[in-house]
């Protein structure tokens, strides 16, 4: 490497400020010092990074490509400094995160006061969305997504995984009893019986060929039409508890209603192949983790830990 690390922030400042003079004023340095830093980079790389002929600053294609890499290097260097300096200090600063609506309401919101009490200097910006991966690197520092993301530029860490269940309200299950033991028909007939009771489902399961198993035998189910779709499992859960037929939900959103008798499991012999009930946290893999990111990852892990039985009254 022939270029100097200290010249990278200067080069980036010239681009951000729109010129050498403005960058020098912003940095509080002589114009000649800023100009020399850019010249050293160009000579070391053997490439022209900035076009100085036109009256307005123009970044060359090579300059744009180098600026993207320079930004990553500068961020890593700054975060390395911050990490080393912050090992013995309390995490601080603003952290933007994107979280799915159901996880936010069910697991995160009830524990936010605990996080604030532990880390009072961390300021959270929480974006509640089902499209967190699209905001990563633009508006947020990390995102929780459904499933896994295959992206070599990012770290994808599983947070929570549980099976999918068919559930209904007790009143619905009583009014629509399953066939008597020993009278179950072929898989197609059992799927037709189930399908007739599904009034709505979460959007991610609204597939034309949703893979399932009927008593261990592979089959598919069409939930793409003939029922309502909603992109929030808690809305599905509330509707089903109010009598809106049968629907599919991850177990981690059903545990309390099942234990309290507000939901019952139905069609237990129709199970799923897909791992759609997994939640993962995603963040840029090239960057060192700042203390505030690390403590929030620990907090998310706590939020997604299996919930033990309720403490006995008394």
From TrEMBL:
GO molecular function: DNA-binding transcription factor activity; sequence-specific DNA binding
Stretch forming the signal peptide: none
InterPro entries per the UniProt record, alphabetical: LysR-type_TF_proteobact-type, LysR_HTH_N, LysR_subst-bd, WH-like_DNA-bd_sf, WH_DNA-bd_sf
Biological process annotations from GO: DNA-templated transcription
CDD domains from the UniProt entry: PBP2_CrgA_like
Location of the HTH lysR-type domain: 3-60
Keywords: DNA-binding, Transcription, Transcription regulation
Protein family (similarity comment): Belongs to the LysR transcriptional regulatory family.
This protein's name: LysR family transcriptional regulator
Annotated organism of origin: Ideonella livida
